[in-house]
Amino acid sequence: MLEIDQATYDAIVSHARRDHPDEACGVVAGPAGSDRPERFVAMLNAARSPTFYEFDSHDLLALYREMDDRDEEPVVIYHSHTATEAYPSRTDISLAQEPGAHYVLVSTREPDVTDFRSFRIVDGEVTEEEVAVVPALQPVEPAGES
Amino acid sequence: MSVEVRIPTILRTYTGGEKAVEGSAGTLAEVFDDLESRHPGLRERLVDEKGLRRFVNVYLNDEDVRFLGGLETTVADGDNVTVLPAVAGGAR
Q1: Arithmetic mean of pLDDT, A11-20
Q2: CA angle B4, B5, B11 (to 5 degrees)
Q3: In sequence order, what DSSP letters do the residues of B18-60 get, joined into one string?
Q4: With CB atoms 3.0 to 4.6 Å apart as the test, which of A75, A80, B60, B61 could cross-link to A16 if both were Cys?
C-alpha cells in the first residue's frame, strides 16, 4: 500500500496537469527504509515528450547525491501518461530499476479526471497497490520509545 | 586500487551488498574490466555490444561520461566513478 499525504498527492497531480501534454516526472524522497514519501521533488523530463520521460542525467546525479547526504531514498517515482491509462507500459516495466520504490502513474488523458495509481515493479513483475491519501503522514515515534 | 566506484542498489547483488567498490585507474573500459575480475557479471549490466548501456548513467566525478570519452574516458587515481540507472519510461 502507498500512504501519501494530501499535499504531496496534489503536488504530483498538479505537476502532471501543468506539463500536459508532455509526460511529467519526479520523485518523493523519504528517510531510507522508512517507506514515508515526505519530500516532493519535481524533475525535468529531459525528453520533453508526450510519450517518453527521462530524468536529465546531471539532475539525476544531483538528486541522488542530495538523497545520499540526507540518508534518503526515492520512496515514490512518479510520471504521467498523457493519452493512455495510468498503468505501467512495457517500457516503464523494462526500465524500472528501483525495486524498493512505489511507481506512481498519473493519467491526464481526461481533462476533468486524473487517475492516480501506484504499483510495485520488481524483476519485471507489476503489482498494483492501494493508495491511501491522508491529511498528514503519521508522526514518527521518537527513538527510545516503543 | 585507487578509483572509487559507487554502485546503485540494483547492482549491489554483484558486490556483496557493498555500495562502493575499488578499481584500478585506466580507461573506463579498463576500470569495468578490473571490476569484473572481482565482481563477475557486473560489466554486462553496464556495457553491451554497442558500448555503454543506454539507460545506465556513468559519471566521472561530476560529469556524465557520455559528454567525455564514453568508455575511453581516462579515469585517474583519486577519481570517483558513479553508476546510476536512468529513471525513464514511456507510454508504450
Answers
A1: 97
A2: 150
A3: -SEEEE-SEEHHHHHHHHHHHSTTHHHHHEETTEE-TTEEEEE
A4: A80
**Using one digit for the tens of pLDDT, what is the confidence trace for B24-82?**
999 999 999 999 999 999 999 999 999 999 999 999 999 999 999 999 999 999 999 99
Nearest to A60 among B87, B89, B92 (CB): B87
Residues of B in contact with A91 (CB under 8 A): 88-92
Distance from CA of A36 to the nearest CA of B (A): 18
Indicate if the pLDDT at residue A32 is higher than 80.
yes
**A2-134 falls under which CATH superfamily?**
Cytidine Deaminase, domain 2 (3.40.140.10)
The H or E element spanning position A28 is strand A25-31
The answer on pLDDT for A29 being more than 60 is yes
Cell 515515534 -> residue: A141
CB contact under 8 Å between B91 and A52, yes or no, is yes
With 0.90 as the threshold, say if the pTM is over it: yes
Determine whether the interchain pair B89/A100 forms a contact, defined as Cβ–Cβ distance below 8 Å.
no
> Which residue type sits at B67?
F
B91 and A79 in contact by Cβ < 8 A?
Answer: no
User: Can you give the residue ranges of every domain in chain A?
Assistant: 2-134
Would you say residue B90 lies in a domain? Answer: no
Q: What is the CATH number of the domain that holds B20?
A: 3.10.20.30
Residue B92, domain member (yes or no): no
**Are the Cβ atoms of B90 and A98 closer than 8 angstroms?**
no
In a domain, B91, yes or no: no
- In terms of CA atoms, which chain A residue is nearest residue B82? A61
Phi, psi dihedral angles at A113 (to 5 degrees): -130, 135
Judge whether residue A144 has pLDDT over 90.
no
Q: Count of domains in chain B?
A: 1
